[in-house]
Amino acid sequence: MTRAWRWPVGALVVGATLGLPVGCGTDEPMGARVAVDASGGGAADGAAGRGGAGGDAGVDAAPPKRTMIQRVPFGNVAASDNLLWDGDFEWHTAFAAQYGWANTASLVVQGSFDQVRVGPECRSGMKCGVMTANQRIAAIGVSPSSGPVVASVWVRPPAGARCLDLSTQLFACDYGDDPDVSLADADGAPDASGWCELVAVSPPRARASCLGLEALFAEGEALVDDAVVRAAPAGARPWVAPPRPGAREVAAVTAHRAALRQLLAPSAPRATPALEALRRWRRVDDRL
Amino acid sequence: MSSRAVPRPRCCCAGAAVLVAALAAPRVAAATELDAAGEVVFAASAVFTYGFESDEDAGAVDGGASLDGTDTDTALEGRRVLSVARFDGVDLPLPLTGERRSYRVSVWARGEVVGTVDVGFADADGGDFAVLYPTGRMTSDGWYELAAERVPIDGVRAERVGLGLFSLAGAEVDAIEVVPVGDAPESVSCAGVADPASCGAGQACEWGRCRNVDARLPALPPVAWRAELVRYLDARLRYLYGPLQNRERDLPRALTEIAAMDVATDAGAFWRHYRTAIQRLHDWHTRATDLSGFLVEDPRPIAACFVEGVADVPGGPPPATAGLDVLVSHVGEPNPLALARGDRLVEVDGLAPVQWTRSLVGRDADHWTASNPRTFAEDVSRLPELISRFARTVTVLRCDATAGTCAAAPETIEVHALPYAPDGTRASVGCDNRPFRHLPESPENHSRRATVSGLLVESDATEAIYGLEWSGLNVSGQPGDDGPPLRDAVALWRSSARGVVLDHRTGFGGTNLGPPILWEFVRTPFPLDLFRFRSTSDEARPSLAEGKAAFDALAAAGQVELAGGPSPRVDVPVALLLTLDGSASDWLPLGMKGAPRVRIFGPYETAGAFSTLFNFGWWFGVGYSIAVGDTLLHTGETINGQGVAPDEIVVPRQSDLLAGRDTVHAAALAWVRSELQP
């Protein structure tokens, strides 16, 4: 475990100690079975998992072909003080040339991060990010006005990979005025559902904060979801100073920053391939 | 407005076959559900269901994709799904004509899909549309539900109704269901957005007819997490919105709108408050976005372009006492309203034109503004489309170019009653703030996509005053960007020009690589500015001294932007003409101002959009672009929200327009001539 800050016991306990919503995304029952319900309703009624978790399919022991899950389609809005623009990917649009997550793997690549998936495999809400080998991405946000900063993100590494195979740092987006802080899972191993919660607490920060992830695994794909950066609760304080990032982490952060400075330089709206395709399909012409 | 790509069944039996299939489907629930075995059960009250099975209709429809299902073991309903390729779309006819009812329309998908219901009418008044959004319901094997909870359809008038599905990354679609949920208001004519009587709940008057605008918005979020969502959206603006001057000036009003979401009782009010909040941020880059531009088209374009100017010709009501008058720049077809260059637009719906456009905040989904509170070029440039869509009347003062006078009294035109044009009709001219053409290749249609350069028509090879007319600074190194024509023009000036007139009176911005191409021609490098992301949730404007100290420190570290190049042609006078200019088109004059032989001409300051933007969209129907930082000038000021002021304030004069004279261009050309070296 390479946690930046030492906690009494593991991240979950830390979260509880700090008063954080432990395991963001638990607002949504995962895999809740839903019985046939003729009463209507659905998300618009505010029902969270109609039929409830472990709902009764009724009759025999034969497993159902599928079950119904109710998600909050805006994601983890309970983290309303999240200082990342869109840590949950729910407001991602393929029509965006610049978005709250950036692909920082290459200075050549133009445009925003667009490997976003919809599905129940995501940790919260409807959408999550997908990373493949050698990829680097970064979420963009600001720092709290004062005090320590809590950063967290859920990642699901490929089968057989470890949590640390998603190298994750909190860093200053543009220039390195603030400390780079590595995030880590409590025990370094994915939970039963394959997810890791990477967490760190940073000393107070003065510059825009970004959360960068680098895929260190060789093959397969990882899911990324529910990234949160926010002020640590009042009274929370680190127990020890964070370890200095290693050479690899320093190189990754340097690469993140260089790409962000270039990719996110001032620009006007421009059309993405998805937007152009929609315009073609809808037969929308550019106006004079 | 015409509803785009509304599906038309290939034959009358197609819809019937679908209906037969629907009637055969099992129905026990009120919306699509799973039974104990995990199989789909359609709503008992569904009037239409479709699962792409072999015994259902299998014809092809508009859009190119076939409705033939693909066999798969993982179909949600039956054995087949519709596969939609990446960046492809399909229109599925819905047999919903004949009755006036509202429906819940839902579809299940795997892979991200844009879903809309498109309603087309026969009389070319356009149509209407609804947008499908995720309900949050998903299945353990990867299907998710998209639904429009209430789509009113005046099936008595509607000629066709279709479900449009567009895939962003490849998708499967299954289990389409349409369930009646109540009555629908009649699709009636109306007299502009201010018409208080004609339209019903959830409707608004657009292009002279009541449209079901609430059906374009998501449902009202459930109480269980609505307040959290409002706080989350509030925090995006409160903590993350970048421009510092705008935060002081405009953010409080935006947050008031967000707070109003908490007490909204219907989806329309809830989401319109959100749209209004975005628009109240009053920033050039910061705009609400939706799908209107893809689904509706102005059914009666008004081909009359306007500029702000001084009404100095005798006749009619007195000129504006506050701000500028709005004058006709040029006209085309269709619907020029019998206007001519130099005529005056006195009022729209009884208000001064700019005051009227500002009254549309919240109603006009595409509202666009300068970042500073003093420039209204964006409002004026959109007047033709806004009048067509929202106005009841315009009041104009016609003038006589030959006599050089205007009528004694204005005339009021009932624009809401303009006839609709045939489908596909578009205005023949663009509104580019250039009343006259000054280059041999200046496009007759005033296209704002053209970049043209050459010897000015007012000059000759001996005088050698060259010009450039263009609207974009999008330089990225990608094919087709604005870089090559700009570099070619500069190369020509270096070899041949004694003077240059840069006509950037429409400047849509671009990238930070655009302005340097022109900066390098006019000055040696100097430390200009630095764009910075917003730093902390409470970051406020620094004092001038703090800003200056920060800039100097950053300049010493080599982290600021330099304007200029090593070999400028400071012997060549360069005039820059501005009117509607934002983002990179703000930076262009910022870096040119103060150069040795540069003079900037225009009626007012540029937009002041010194940021970059992010785009966000919630399932394509609700979205926004937003400025995420600010720019620190070498003086220590943060400058998003204040534009670049012209060196010489020159306002188009009505008398010049009538006389065939381009006031701003003439002033610039006169200055360049006065500066020519022997």
Q: What would you note in describing this structure?
A:
The complex is a heterodimer of chains A (288) and B (678). Chain A is of the alpha+beta class. In chain A, 12% of the residues lie in helices and 22% in strands. Chain A folds into 2 domains: 32 residues, no CATH class; 184 residues, Galactose-binding domain-like (Jelly Rolls, Sandwich). Chain A contains 3 helices and 11 strands, in the order H-E-E-E-E-E-E-E-E-E-E-E-H-H. Chain A is globular, with a radius of gyration of 20 Å. Among the domains of chain B are: 176 residues, Galactose-binding domain-like (Jelly Rolls, Sandwich), CATH 2.60.120; 152 residues, 2-enoyl-CoA Hydratase, Chain A, domain 1 (Alpha-Beta Complex), CATH 3.90.226.10. Chain B is 22% helix and 28% strand. In chain B, strands 4, 5, 6, 8, 11, 12 and 14 form a 7-stranded antiparallel sheet that branches. In chain B, strands 25-26-27-30-31-35 form a 6-stranded mixed sheet, with helices on both faces. Chain B has a 5-stranded antiparallel sheet with strand order 18-19-20-21-24. The chains are: A alpha+beta (288), B alpha+beta (678). Chains A and B meet through strand 1 and helix 3 of A and strand 2, strand 11, strand 12, helix 2 and helix 6 of B. Strand 1 of chain A pairs antiparallel with strand 11 of chain B.
Mean pLDDT of chain B comes to 92
Q: Please tell me how large the radius of gyration of chain A is.
A: 20 Å
Distance between the termini of chain B: 57 Å
The CATH architecture of the largest domain in chain A can be named as Sandwich
CATH superfamily placement of the largest domain in chain A: Galactose-binding domain-like
Low-confidence parts of chain B, pLDDT < 50 over ≥5 residues?
1-28, 58-65
Sheet with the most strands: spatial strand order of chain A: 2-5-10-7-8
Number of helices of chain B: 15
Structural class of chain A: alpha+beta
Number of domains of chain A: 2
Biggest sheet of chain A, open or closed, and with what strands and sense? Answer: 5 strands, antiparallel
